Amino acid sequence: MWRVRIGQRLRELRSNKMLVRGFAAAGGAAAGTGILSLPAKHPVTFGASFTSMKTTVADIFVQKVIEGRSEMDFKRTAVFASFGFAYMGVAQYFLYVKLMAERWFPNAGEYAAKTIAEKTRDVVGTRNLFAQVAIDQFWHIPFVFFPCYYTTKELIMGDPSRDISVTMSSAIKKWRKNLWEDTKASWMIWWPCNLVNFGFMPMHYRIPFMAVCSFAFCVVISLMRGGGEKKLNKEASELAKAISSSKLDTDAFVALIRKTHEKGLLKSEQGISYPAFVKVMTQIGLTDEKVVKDLFQC
Questions:
Q1: Which of 87, 64, 103, 126 is nearest to 214 (CA)?
Q2: Over the chain, what HEC string results?
Q3: pLDDT confidence bin for 180, thresholds 50/70/90
Q4: What pLDDT is recorded for position 121?
């Protein structure tokens, strides 16, 4: 009798296991054909589209809600949309997945799938986790990400009539000037986010997860660096227009500055300030500090 009962129980267990497997297979098939399969099937396209949408929404949020603009700066939004797609979506997928996860740290996916208890015992995997975050925050973000961002911004928002070398030079100067402040802002957000991303996310979810976390980062960057340079005052703008439209040698250049000053174009309550004069000279491509100072004193 007891043998019959054991046999029945075993058959029930087998039936339950088959039922569970059936549901799992059905669920897997449904997921394989549904929207949840997109990140795994098309990781680059999905990630790039997602990040482009995210950066666009972040900049619109800053312009309309935080800055309270009545009119949108669509060139500025185009910077974030294009940069979000091409760099944050496509380029970063190859960096974070193809290079870091598959070549430099080939066990990253296996480590991400482990439980927290297993991670605490995996010394090499944990060390590699911090190495990935360090590579991202000490090399990639300061010396690759930000130069690419400023270059994209200058190409879209800058003067289209400028020579490409002038555009690139302007981008590099802004990157150097803002490097420390930008990097500090990155560290505040990305150290904790990257520890979660590199430590727990499957490979095809790395870019979408970063896109979600980087909404706050994009808001910060949009606030800090999204807008163009502040407009020059009227006098400085007049001088820049006069100088940039002329082909002058050094003497004629000095004479023009004196002439515009005599006409009152540089006059204000206390005369034009040196920082405003430097902005004018930078705008027309004259960046030698000694020459600018000599011209200002003339």
A1: 87
A2: CHHHHHHHHHHHHHHHHHHHHHHHHHHHHHHHHCHHHHHHHCHHHHHHHHHHHHHHHHHHHHHHHHCCCCCCCHHHHHHHHHHHHHHHHHHHHHHHHHHHHHHHCCCHHHHHCCCHHHHHHCHHHHHHHHHHHHHHHHHHHHHHHHHHHHHHHHHHHCCCCCCHHHHHHHHHHHHHHHHHHHHHHHHHHHHHHHHHHHHHCCHHHHHHHHHHHHHHHHHHHHHHHHCCCCCCCHHHHHHHHHHHCCCCCHHHHHHHHHHHHHCCCCCCCCCCCHHHHHHHHHHCCCCCHHHHHHHHHC
A3: very high
A4: 94
Per the CB < 8 A criterion, the answer to whether 74 and 64 are in contact is no
Distance CA 244, CA 195 (A): 50
What is the rounded CA–CA span in Å between residue 29 and residue 13? 24
pLDDT digits (tens, 9 = 90+) for 5-45: 555 554 544 444 433 343 333 334 444 455 566 666 777 88
What would the two tokens of residue 247 be? 């082909």
Top pLDDT among 52 and 137 is at 137
The reported pTM is: 0.57
pLDDT in tens, 127-138: 999 999 999 999
- Give the per-residue pLDDT at 219: 72
Structure tokens at 108: 């990253």
